[in-house]
Amino acid sequence: MNKFITLALIAMSAIPMAAAGTDHLTGANFKAQLPDLNYSATGYADATSINPDFTYEGESGAKYLFNQMVSDGSSWWALSWANWPEPQGYVTVTESAGYLTSMQIKVNDGLWPAESFRIYLSNEPILTEDDIRDCVEMYLEKSADYKWEADGLYRYFRVGTSQEYISDLEVSYSETAPAIKAKTPTIDCWDKTPEGTVWINTQTSGALLHITTFINSEEAETTVSESSSFSMKVPGVPGDNVKIEAYASMEGYEDSEVATMEFTVEKPVCPQPVCDYWGDVWPGAQLVYTSDVEGAYMTYIYGYTDWNDRSWESEMLTADFPVTITVPGDVLPGDVFYVIATAHAEGYADSSESEKYLSVISTVLDAPSASIQSGTEVKAGTELTLYRPKNASAIHYVVNDGEEVTVEDEFAHIVISEDCSISTWATGEAPFTPSETVMLSYTVEKFNPWTDVLTPSLFCTDESLYNGTDMLDVNYVSKATTVDYVYHGALWIYNSTDWLFYLSKEGSILYNNSKYNRINRIKIDSDVFGGSSCYILFSDAPVTEITEDMKNWDFDGPRLRIGKADGSDYGYDEWIDLQAIGEINGYDVTDMPYFAVWRFGQNGNTPRIVVDYEENPNVGVNTIDIEESTKSAIYTINGIRVDSDNLTPGIYIRKSAGKAEKFIVR
Predict the structure, then answer these.
(1) What CATH number was assigned to the domain covering residues 274-359?
(2) How does pLDDT run across 552-566, given as a tens digit for each residue?
(3) pTM of the model
C-alpha cells in the first residue's frame, strides 16, 4: 500500500517517555569516532575529499548509514553515488534504538537554508528506493525550526539533503512506545446535493475510520474503513438533515477525537438553459433553447435596445423546452438583442440566469474589401485580393466590362497587368441580400524614357554578396539618362524574389554621382517589414556621405522622412513630387538634380527606387551609331531602332545622311 502522505508540521507539547537516548550527528562526533575519514573538503563540489559510504553509531545505540559524506569538521551533507557530484543524498537509520520521539535539523546561518527538509518515517529499515513506497513522507519546515515531535509510532527514518550544510541532526528515542492519539479526521462536503461527495480523512497513516451517518436524527449506517481516506455520496434526499460522525483508531494509538459535520441536503441546481447560437442576429433570426433535464421548462424575457432612448422588452414568458425565440422585425442594425432566461424542473433548484446579448446587423451584405486602395498606381503583375465579407457566400467581380467572375472562397485574387476598372459585389444565402456594387480603379505604372528604375541587381549580380554583412562599393550607369548611381552599403536577399538595398546596415547610402536634369518626382518602394523609415535628401551637388549633422532629428536641410512609421513625411510606394512640393525646410527643391537615400531605423530596406527626371533633349542622341548612308532610320530616345510604320506616341530620333533630329509622335 502506498502511504505517501505529506504532513504539515505541528508543534506539540512534549510527552514524558522512557529515555533511550539522544544522538547528535555532527562533524565533531564523526571525527571522534571515525578519525581516518577525509575531512579536508571545503565545498560540496570538492571531489578530491569525498569519502565512500560510512556508518556512524550514536550514543543511543542507533546506527546511521551515510551515502557519501564531505565535511569541513563542523558541517556535513550527504551525496548520492547515483547523482554524484550533485549534492543530493541522504542519511538513514539501519539499526534503531527504539521509538522515535523527536527530531531536529540544525543548519549554519547564512548558508542558503532550505525552506524544508523531506523525511521518511517507517517501522522497517529504509535501505532501498523501493522501501520508500511504504513510508510516511513529511517535511520539516523552516518556519518551525525544522523540528518534529512524534505524532506516530516510528522506529526508522531517512533524511534527504540537497546542498544544505547540516551542522547537527538531533534524534531522540524511547525504549517504550509513546502514548499517541490518532489524528482527528477531517470531514468535507462542498456539494450538499444528492450528487455531492463527502470526504473523510485522517493524517494517521494506516488508521481505521469509524463512520456513523444519521438522517433526521436517526442512525442510518455505520461504516468501518480500513483506509485512512474514505468517500461516500451525500446520503438522504433534499430536505433531510444529515449528521456524520467519524473517528480514527489504530493499534498502539489512542482513539482520536470524534469529528462531526451536520447539514441539510440541498436540491440539485437545474442546469442553465442551453442556446448554441452565437454571433450576430437580424430581424426574423431564431434562437433555440434546450435542456437535458426531462420535464424542465424555461421562464424568460427578451428585448432590444440601442443603449439610448430606443428600447423594447417582452413580458415574463414561460415555455417548455425546447424554446424558440424569434428576433422582432422592427430591430435595427446597431441594436443589441438580448435574452435573460432561467431553467426550472421538479426536484431541482432554479438555475442561475442565462444572459445573452447579441448585436443586430443588416441583412444587406457589406461589399467586398480590397487589399489595395482604389486609385493606386501599381506595378505590372501586382496581385489584388478581394475579401469576402461576413455572412456572404460568394464574391463577384467584373474587370474592364468583361465577363462576370464568381468566387466562393474567402478571397478572390486578380492580377493587374494593365489599367483597369473593377466592379465587385457580394451575395449570400437568405435572409442576406446582395451588397452594393463598388467600383475600384487601378493604373499600371508607366515610365518616361528619362525615368530610371534602380534595383539591386543593376549594381551587383553576384548573389553570394547579398549577405547583409559585406559593405560594397558598387555603381550603375543608366543607359537612358547616362546618370552614374553609387551604392555604398550591404545587399540582402529577403526571399527568392526580393533583392534589397540593405539600408539597415549602418553607413549604407545610395546616391546619384552625376546628373541628367532636375528631379521631377521620386518614390521608394516598401520595406519588407513595413515598420521602419529611411531618409531622402535633395541637393544641388552629389551627396557622397552622410554627415553626423544630417542624421540629427533637428536637421533643417531639404530632407524628408519616408516610411510607414508615425511621423513620416511620405509613405513607401508614394510619389514625392518635387515640383508640387516647391520647398523643403525653406530650400527650393524644384531644380535640384541630386539625391541620397539612407536608413532612418532598423529594417529600413528597399527593393527599388524610381527617379523621374525632367526630359533632357541633349542626352541620348550620342548613343546612336549614325549610319553612313542616305537611308533614314528611326530610333527611340534610348537608341533602339524601330519600324517607322509602327510608331506609338513618344519621342524618337530620325537619322538620315549622317544627321540626327528629334521628333514627337502624338
Answers:
(1) 2.60.40
(2) 888 999 999 998 877
(3) 0.57
